[in-house]
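Methods: holo model generation. Sequences were used as deposited, without trimming of termini or removal of tags, and paired with ligand SMILES retrieved from the corresponding compound records. Each pair was processed once, and we did not select among multiple samples. The sequence and flavin-adenine dinucleotide SMILES for this entry were:
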Amino acid sequence: MNKTIIFVGGGISGLSGGIHAQLAGYKSIVLEKDPRLGGFCTTWKRGDYIFDGMMHFLYGSKAGTYYNNFWKTLGILDQVQFKPLDSLRGIRTKDGDTFDIWKEPAKFREEMRRYCTNDQDRASVEVVIHDILTCTKDYSEHSLMPGEDTPIEPNYESSKQYFDRLFTNKKLALMATQVFGERPSLKSHLKCIAGFMSGDLLYPDGGSHNFANKVANTLRNLGGETMNNAEVMKVNIDGTKATEVVLKNGDIVKADHIVFSSDITHAYSLIPRDKYRNIKLEKVLEEADIYPSAVLINFGMKSKMLFETSYAFHRIHELHTPVKVCGQLLGMPNLRYLQSESFHPKDESILQLLAYISYDKWVSLKGNKKAYNQHKKDITNQFIEQLELIYPGFKSNIKIVDTATPLTFERYTHNAKGGFMSFAQTDKNVQFANILRDPFVGLSNVHIGSNWRGLYSGLACAAENGKVVVDRIKKMDGI
Ligand SMILES: Cc1cc2nc3c(=O)[nH]c(=O)nc-3n(C[C@H](O)[C@H](O)[C@H](O)COP(=O)(O)OP(=O)(O)OC[C@H]3O[C@@H](n4cnc5c(N)ncnc54)[C@H](O)[C@@H]3O)c2cc1C
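and the model returned the structure below.
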């Protein structure tokens, strides 16, 4: 076949799309505005430490499962080593209580039972274990994302409703809800935990950028082309078809199909408004709930910290004093602890803190470097003081601090409001799903192929969207 697909954006979705296009017989060209491929799937070096912007864990380590087959296609399994995890994630309270989702069902049962004070709660623990193990049975076909034609389930039961219904002990219900996560539906959390317990979830050693580089290698080995420092500034159109894109340096790249593997708001801004306006999409972009923006604070630690495992992912349940900046209360942070010598000097460690924060204040700081840095410092220092109370000795153990804000995320990806997970899975957003899948009205060969084509996001969904969009193009071209 003699047809070319351009992927605008060299994050995981663009690279995966390129691979699936090559496999279907198309010529693929991935255009990335930055000097490096990977988008959010990235790492950066500060002093002796390598901070990972993204990778927490990945499904697909178990042969025969959905994601195992998927990563095989992306060429990951032969090139990346996976490390097992003992705990999926845990909760830490300010009073020193701990609550973890352990890999072994028996250990997780004991974890819940520690907080049970009556027979009803002990019986409910068995219900939770039963519900997880039931999901384990049909887990192998599991994808995190519904297919193109699968309706998104509205009015689902949330983890909160589930645990409030099951447990009389309020503390247990709250900790279980927080460790599961409130959204999306309870069912999707049960599936994730089932996948973890069945051994399909591991940590890919080498982290995010290594992962993205390996996917890019596969694409190039298949004959696909990747271009760095290639920012797309304009799409040229003839009637109902886009014919080419114009890069920042003035170069023109011609194509039969153009896939935006990037943020939809930014993509839409590159389409001429006069003829190809989509009023419905504009309403979505204005009204839809976006996954909240966040600050990511990275700490290079002089020594190992007192975590139970060399890799831990914790939610802090409650701080001694809530962190408040400019009148705004910040959400409870997530912590990720990493002890792996690919990322730091021997016997040292890394701690990362992610906390949700409104984007609006940051907009007013654009261009005012002094105020921006002060704001960053203020938030960072408040969190350091709180972590010191939870982990005594933390402060004197810090060697390097690096804080990324919503403006950092926005600068690197062009993502709206510096968001890092596209649209949220809220009941309100369900009505927008179909519009997002087909946003470029009047243009038959321009598509969206990133997380922003629906309500499901994250690395695996981004990679799957690369495939989904190529499947759609194949159908259009009769392949
Ligand atoms: C702190 C953090 C933690 C995360 N944790 C997790 C997690 O635990 N699990 C999980 O699954 N996901 C997580 N994610 C989300 C995950 O990283 C993303 O969902 C995924 O990497 C998105 O991939 P993408 O290809 O859709 O988009 P992106 O990675 O945003 O890639 C888009 C690319 O397009 C490029 N681009 C934009 N405009 C243009 C243009 N005009 N011309 C050329 N190139 C352009 C950008 O530079 C970028 O490289 C996290 C993200 C962050 C930031």
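Residues 76 and 214 are 6 Å apart (CA to CA).
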